[in-house]
Design brief:
Double Stranded RNA Binding Domain, Methane Monooxygenase Hydroxylase, Chain G, domain 1, 368 residues, 10 helices, Alpha-Beta Plaits, alpha+beta, 21% strand, 11 strands, 3 domains, three-stranded antiparallel β-sheet
């Protein structure tokens, strides 16, 4: 075992040991048992805080799982080192070296994941996310780009093992999509995705132009926290709401076209308007409109806090339509570059296939 490799492994084990020292496994286990006992009570789901309890239970279980995984990997890594140091057989030495390499990679990835989650300390960072994609100016080109982005993020959700549900979709006339919205139900989904909101710019040779001219297209990503139906942080009095109902029209069957299923909800104090027409019943659209309004109000609250914090730090930049956060260049060269972190890669195929962890992790760490 080379000295350089030994030093790297020793540093990794030291980092893992320091992390384990910050966990109280017994206390977490006791808290988990108490919450689990509470969740098994006959009237548990009749209480408003039931979903919050289940979320806390899942968070604690994840911490315990991480503790046990790190402990096991450190033990396996130390055992491999001991075998390697005492081994004289060349063939066996090669096998242990490969195992050492595999264990090191696993532990490094796990420690990065745990570290990243510790950075996510925002009020709603542990929540799921309402994630939407909107095509920008550019007609069919922009709609096709929005669909490419949609595929990229869906592949990312799949790689993360996140449950994601398509809530609504508006197809383009010739190709692509005008808009699409997903509910991403996974711990820390909002915290990891929230800095993806903003304008994404694509430069490529146009597949929709006979002359293969270079074309620039834009798409907008919006991310909001996925909040429970009953949330103590976002209380909206009925007197603050104004409802308007109409026929949805378009696809959806006779019931959708003949009955007032479409919903327009106005939050009177802020003037925020939410429209929902995708569901087949008025009740479902009302529920979705309320959920979306809570998310918008939570996002406004978070934006005000971040703006105040940024002013204290002396910097402030909005992640909005006019501020592109990432460029995707497919012609005349290949490059994906984040404008905030300067992280870049020439492997555009991998990025568009959902391998965007490097960008998300860099931006998350930058804003801590």
């Amino acid at each position: 075992m080379q000295q350089t490799q030994k030093n790297e492994v020793d540093q990794l084990i030291s980092k893992a040991t320091d992390l384990l020292a910050g966990f109280d496994r017994n206390a977490l286990s006791t808290q988990h048992q108490q919450l689990e006992k509470k969740s098994l009570m006959p009237d548990f789901w009749q209480h408003a805080e039931a979903k919050e309890v289940m979320q806390e239970l899942a968070d604690i279980q994840q911490q315990i799982t991480h503790y046990d995984q790190v402990t096991a990997l450190v033990a396996d890594l130390q055992a491999a080192i001991d075998l390697l140091n005492g081994n004289d057989q060349e063939s066996l030495d090669a096998g242990i070296t490969q195992e050492l390499f595999n264990l090191t990679n696993k532990l490094t990835k796990l420690l990065n994941q745990i570290e990243l989650q510790r950075f996510l300390s925002g009020k709603y960072d542990k929540k799921g996310a309402l994630f939407s994609i909107h095509s920008g100016q550019g007609g069919t080109e922009a709609m096709d780009w929005a669909d490419m982005l949609r595929r990229m993020y869906v592949r990312y959700f799949e790689r993360q093992g996140w449950k994601h549900t398509l809530l609504s979709e508006s197809q383009g006339e010739e190709a692509g999509i005008k808009a699409a919205e997903y509910a991403v139900e996974a711990p820390f989904a909002y915290g990891l995705l929230k800095r993806e909101r903003g304008t994404h710019r694509l430069v490529r040779q146009s597949p929709f132009n006979a002359n293969n001219l270079r074309q620039t297209s834009f798409a907008l990503i919006e991310v909001m926290p996925l909040l429970e139906d009953v949330n103590p942080d976002i209380v909206i009095p009925d007197s603050d709401l104004a409802w308007n109902f109409s026929r949805s029209g378009g696809a959806g069957g006779q019931n959708v076209n003949k009955v007032n299923t479409a919903v327009e909800l106005t939050h009177l104090p802020s003037g925020t308007v939410v429209r929902c027409r995708e569901e087949r019943s008025q009740a479902q659209n009302k529920e979705r409109a309320l959920q979306k309004l809570r998310a918008i109000l939570a996002l406004q609250e978070e934006a005000e806090f971040e703006q105040a914090l940024s002013k204290e730090k002396g910097t402030h930049q909005l992640a909005s339509w006019g501020n592109q956060i990432r460029n995707y260049v497919l012609h005349p060269y290949k490059l994906v570059k984040d404008t905030r972190t300067e992280v870049e890669t020439s492997d555009t195929t991998a990025v568009l296939d959902g391998q965007i962890d490097e960008f998300i992790q860099a931006e998350t760490r930058l804003n801590v």
